[in-house]
Write a structure and sequence with these properties.
The protein is an alpha/beta fold and 1053 residues long. It has four domains: 6-212, Nucleotide cyclase, GGDEF domain (Alpha-Beta Plaits), CATH 3.30.70.1230; 232-432, 3-Layer(aba) Sandwich (Rossmann fold); 438-514; 780-1052, Tetratricopeptide repeat domain (Serine Threonine Protein Phosphatase 5, Tetratricopeptide repeat), CATH 1.25.40. Helices cover 59% and strands 10% of the residues. The protein contains 47 helices and 17 strands. Strands 1, 2, 3, 4, 5, 6, 7, 8 and 9 form a nine-stranded mixed beta sheet that branches. The protein has a five-stranded parallel beta sheet with strand order 11-12-13-10-14, with helices on both faces. The longest helix is centred in the N-terminal third of the chain and has 25 residues, at 98-122. The N and C termini lie far apart (90 Å).
Amino acid sequence: MSERGPVALPGAPVATGFLGGNGDNPSEARHERRILTALCYDLVGSTDLLAILDIEEFEELISAFQRATRQAVASCSGAVRVEVGDGGVALFPAEIDAKDAASLAIRAGLEIIDACRRVGLDKGRADLHVRVGIATSMTLIHKGDADTGHDNVTGPAFAMATRLQAIAQPDTVVVSDATRNLARRSHVFSFRGAHAVKGFAEPELVWRALSHKREVDRFFAFGRLSSPLIDREAELATISEAWDSAIAGNGGVVVIEGEAGIGKSRILHEVRRRTRHQRAKLLFFQCTPGGLRSALHPLLQNVRGDLAGNEGQLSAAAVAEAFRDHDVRDPEIIEIFSFLLGAAGADPMLKEIDAEAMRAKANWAVRHALEALCASGPIVLVVEDIHWIDLTSRQLLAELAQSAPHFRALVIATTRPESGSWLAASNPRHISLKPLNREQTRMAIAAMWPQGKPSTSPELLDVVERVTGGVPLFIEEICQWMTENAASATDRLSQSETRSHASVFESVIEARLETLGPAREVARAAAVAGNRFNQELLRALLPELDDEAIANALDSLSEAGFLIRVRPSGAPVYGVRHALIQETIYNATLRKRRQALHRRLFAAVSHNRNLAGWLGTAEVAEHAERAGLLEDAIAQFVIAGTESSSRSAMAEARQILEHALALCERVTAADTRDALRLSAMIVLGPILTAVEGPNSAPARKLYEDGVMIARRRPVAERAKWFPIYWGWWFTDTVMDGERAEVVLSDLKDVEDAEVQLQARHCVWAIDFNLGRHDRCIAAVGAGLSLYEHGQGKAHAALFGGHDARVCGLAHRALSMWFVGKPASALHSMSEARSWAQQTGHAGSIAHAYLNEAMLHCYRRDFSMLRSVIADLRHLTERHHMPALAAAAQIFEGWCDGNAGQVESGREKMRQGLGLHGEFQTPEDEPVYCGMLAELLTRTAEVDEALALLDSAVAQAEAGGSRFWLAELYRRMAELLLLQGDAKANVVAALEKSIAIAAEQGAVPFLVSTYETLQSSGLSPELSLRYRDRVERAKSALESGAALIVNPESPGRR
């Protein structure tokens, strides 16, 4: 194909329909000048594929690709005119507007990439990629004669498209500057620099087409800049300095601060204009009042785009597509953000990660996403109105801001005063926008005054300057109002000089709306609807108006500058042009009218969520609250809290649910109030235990209050509120079994298998900790008979974070070891591990591994213990479980110490115990203290070992973890004996040990303490008292496995 050569268009009938021309004029029929858009596509690496594929397979692959490409082009009104092997050229119709043709060509190019991906997946070739180039130019169409039936088209677009295709990256669409200018309103582009193109004299500005535009900022959508930029050169110089630094590789942050209407967004528009030829990308995120309680609301709105007409359910595939459009392709980054955004199809395993670990993953994803975004050149990333930012977005923006200096990235945040101090750690440049002075105000009035309208008098200029306070948005609205109502405006403004600027602004807005008739009521409904709405939603809010009246009102409000279209194609979706205008209209609407509109919106959206698919559950709840529908609002906030919690947005979930509890206090009916409080507590409780810790004051208080409410509810409801009982038991600081007995007693008449199972879940855990091993084994048996496949996993988040069957089998294994049945213990633990792995639930797997490690520790089976340590480490690497990492370090230190590395093992154990204490899981601490005391004894640190054992005994006695108490007393007696302490003290410790072991039926401790007693010869009387009991225990020991695999030799004690 020559650089400027003609392209043959075979098939006269098709060509005629495609290229137009009425044929009346013979000359016109033979030659036509038209603007055409050409698209060139080519598979990447097809020669390599030919070398590794069978020729028939290769042919089939190419045919499938070309077939899919033709379909993609045809779906966008184009036609493939040339196919050459694995590539080709397509043209787009000349009879439609050139802008539409360019837009359709880009859409076809993006479709070709998707089609190529689908063909590759279908054919098992994930390495199938395509490049697309698009260019637009004036062309000359040579009509073919009747004999050949061919039309020829000559123009530079074909050569340019071919050259652009050659420089495109795989799976990207690159377009010429002319194509981009035609399609700039319909698509998002990323500048790829100026390129010297063979055959063309001047360098070509090259752009990558990213996606069809879904969201636009208010200046772009408004279509004109009615607000001029007046004397902000100093501020722009600061931003320019930051941008130059970012281009050089030293990114940074700029915070633009100012009151509403002061011109923050106008500055941003100028930044966009001035950086457009140097930046690779511009990313714009908008915070809104309604998004305060919705995690990642600005990002969600950008990714989700326009959801009118569907359920608004975001998919992981859509997130992946959006990220790929901006060159972020790392699957792990995409998985993390899909999960955080609550996308359907996100990795369910991320739900098993604790909140702190998820925060670390999210921060990692932000840093690496920023790196990917900057790979192709410097970027500008804007977050507007961060005074409305949600907590998760705030965390990630802070991380992004601190990472910016390492990349070619300029991060700009706008905010109202005193709302951006949390970005201080990133050392931002601060810009504080001040009101315009007198001279600047006059310049603004002159610039904003509509052309063709009589200019205002100097006296009135003075009034405008005083009442607007130099706020550009106020000036703009007053200028518009004055030109619309010149006669009344002068008098009313003169009377307003003593009022506040905000009051004057409200009066001006109301005065302007008065002149629009019925449109004023539509404006009020729009202000209630929020930052997005469409005609269908407004019809639900205003049933008294027909479609035509609403459509006319929307046109009037748009023409007057109150509304903007936030979606440039398809069914119109609107927004109020400025947040301050929306706030002003909303506040000026009578409270009863606002409530009525909110009530209608809530009813309509509850009936049909498709009506406003962009509204999150928390936003729907806020509409119910403002409507005065407290019960509905609380119910929706509870759902919103559950949704946030499910994607680890714990801060938002807690905020939402605590707000729901506060609303409950305003519900007058006590019975209803109690039920609503309990529904919120059920969801909030696990969040508090996860974030604050199970022994934290907030968690304990919530569950104590919850049980008080639940116990006064009807018995028939208690199954419903069982999670409250569970949490009350779980957060108990003393494991004496009292609360477990209360749970069983209160729920004994509840005929619900899940409740009875989980009640016994409480009981067997308490019985084990108290050393009541026979009762533990019995409780497990009773509980597991109630277990149904999957139900324990389904309720893991509410009940301890693990599957009930896994827990029961593991506790039964440990108790069986204590009663002298080591083979049965190993079998039950094997069942626990197997079942945990079948559930696929990370918390349950962790629970099984940790208990298995403990059993091997009891049996002193160092080889098996090291194997489980490896499993623990692998699991914590995958799911970031710091408590598991601490346990693994403790066990490993103990193994090392028993393998001759006593000093290093001791230090490893000390570090592990220090970490373990941070996670507030004290039930295993007596075991760990005994293990460390063993190593301290070998390093002759007997005093420290005794102090450690004293502390462990006190903790076990106070907290109810008595199952290891006999062993602690036995080891204490040995240390006292080693230290040469008084005989009475040694005997007292041994007596306590053997008495506790006998009471609990703890065979291993009964035997070991008796042996210590015998070897010491300190109390023959005590030995005689327990001799028969010990002999019976020994004779009853289960065969098939050793009780202790590597007994501790007396010489090492």
